[in-house]
Amino acid sequence: MVKVENRKTLWFLTKQFLKINRARNFIAILAIILTSTLFTTLFTGAGSLFLSQLETNKKKYITDCHAIIQQLSSEEGQRAETVLKDASFVEKYGKDIFLGIAFGENFPYLLELHAGDENSARNRFALPTQGRMPQTKNEIAVSTTILDALGISHKTGEKITLPVSISDGAPEEETFTLCGYWKGDLVSQYQFAWVSEDYAQEKLASDALDGASDTSDNIFGNVFSYAVWFKNTRTISENIRTLNTLSGLSESGRSSNGFSISPAYEIAFSGEGGISVSSIAAFLVVILLAGYLIIYNIFNISVKNDIRTYGLLKNVGTTGKQLKKIVRMQALVLSAAGIPIGLAAGYIAGVLLIPVLTASLNEKTETVSTAHPLIFLFSAAFSLLTVYLSVLQACRIAARVSPVEALRLAENPQTRRKNKKNFSVSCTGMALQNMSGNWKKGVIVMLSIAISLTTLNVAGILISRHNFKDISDLYLAADFQLSKLTSTADFADFHAISPEIRQTLDVCPYAQETGYTYFSRKTLSMPEHLRKTYKRITDKYLEQWGYDWDETWQEISASNQIPVLYMGISRAVFDQLDWRGEPASWEDFQSGQYVIVNYPYNYYVDKTDYYYKKGDSLTMTCQNGEEKTYEVLEEAMLPYLLDFPYTELISVKVYVPDTEYIVCTGDNSAMRAIINAIPGQEKKVQQYIEELILTEDDTFQFTSVLDLKKDFNRYLSKYYIIGGLLAFVLALIGIMNFYNTTATSLISRKKELALLEAVGMTKKQLLGMLVFEGLFYLCGAVIMAGILTFLYSRRFTDRAIPLYAFLPFALMIPVLLFIAWAIPKVQFRKMNRESVVERIRQQ
Predict the structure, then answer these.
(1) Would the pTM of this model clear 0.90, i.e. be above it?
(2) Of the four, 224, 469, 494, 816, which is 20 to 30 A from 618 by CA?
């Protein structure tokens, strides 16, 4: 036997096999394109989602840097800056001096005054895009949001007068010259103003700037902060440890932690949100399996169809190793044609899916796409791995075949089938007999289709777990809510809903009901039972609350005056109270003789603890100095969305009817307004509020059921689109597998089918047998999908699954039934273009 060593000969044989298998090549290239597309879409989506959420958290926490250190004294700041200058792994850093705050009646923002460099401004997304950073004492740079609130034009050189509080001192009006500005964020309640370092040196106390190491609890004595960017983000934690070691600040300074990772990068590296590693691994397995099943089947069928040729090649000296190489070279050529197309298509699909992936409820998100080379490298590598694994079996078949066995298999590929007794001579019986002779091939086809059906079921289950009513209950207390409550109580407007606004809302013709909550602060002499209740609570939880609340409790205990959050509520709000005991009636409550008092949270010391019990007396002091004694009607609490939204750990909430509140306080401006629309009139109510209220004052915090529903549908669309697209591609792979199996089966069984027709079997019966084979494949796929879905639901779902979750699956069945009928019929008609005699002679 002469061994063939010529590489050109092997390449020539590879090209010949490619030429005689053009139909196979097309299906294989299409399968490789789809597999590569899925891999690239996955890596593009995962990478872009990671970067999008990183950018979102940067904007959320208003920090762009990798590491931060805050609230340092002048001496600590000098130590930190010296280390940062000398550190070779630091790309850049920014120095920031916090001076104080500016506020006024014209704008409801917390405006922080800082002196810093461009890096500090860049870190806070507050770098002037017009003009420059301040350089002289009287210069200032602010956002367009502040300029608009003050009614100042967007033009450098304009004068800005602000009441400024330096180092927590009394506010004093100062006039600055605008030297730069940038586009502000209307949503953010935190705004920044930049002044020069000369101004900071002049205004701050000398002991804060000129060397005194003040580490007391006065935050304004520790005003220096630094934002740090590293050259390599992969070594952030290691770099931070090095900086802390070199500076010695890990146990000094107000932060007590020295340099620390910025919140955005901490969340990103902790794996919160985004696509988890386990999810990516699961997607990789599904895609690899789907691609493997079709490419495996394609090459197995192809090798078996060409088995006589491989046998003859082996007979003339080609080794098994060389035959393997011929099969692999075919796969590589087809991969070279399909993978680049798949990479391009997958990247485009990934970029288009980013807005869907980043969709969030009630939160503004950033959208960032990436074309990192590693995306294409990993996608190509996984695609090649899939192809390589898929052709292993085909390589073994080609390498192990002997010339005699090749001839036998080519002439009668089903000689190994055992003759069975008691065989039912019918279309269904013959279909089952044919499938049993090729059961491995059938399992591959069924599993390929089952994966797509399972994907549809999983997507349906995930969607069914999200209910708009549950979401609206979480984010809304009514169809529409209106307030000026900011993220901090110090800058919230508790009296934003004026009588004029209430009147406007009350006469809205499309509103079903309106409701209001009012708020003011009062104090109350602390009875002995209330002191004991808070003594038990503070003994257990004060350490967790922190030092500030310890001081607060000591002051309250010494004065024997408990803070009271005095709230007036209307009927619509009263109906949403969460009662501890039996619900009270509005008629009794609005009489003006009763109050409702809140109760301790369930996680406190004892569920039987109380502030005031039903029937207790409570005396409040009104605006005119008169005292009024009320009886406690019941204990209850408002939902968070209607209640006082800020932390007051040591206080009592007292609820009275809105009319009684106005009489007692003299304040007829509400804290919140809620509006429920007449069913079907939500759009008109929103338009009414926008035109008559929001156009006059755009600083209101307005929440709408329509906006939430829009966000909810956008959020759900990720499951519809991603699940649907994935199921579609996987279904296409399964259908291609079914088509390829059916087509090659008919070609290899031409003689067998011709002989059956020759001995009297009609074309209708032959077609019925082939159609039943397709239906059996489909039934097997449905059963497999059911088993896989059951296993998923048992493992990941702890609630009953509604039937509508399986609607996409049910709609897919008729489509697959049609395909199971159409493909065999089309192939059979194509085969019948030749006569029975011609088909027998060809074989």
Answers:
(1) no
(2) 494
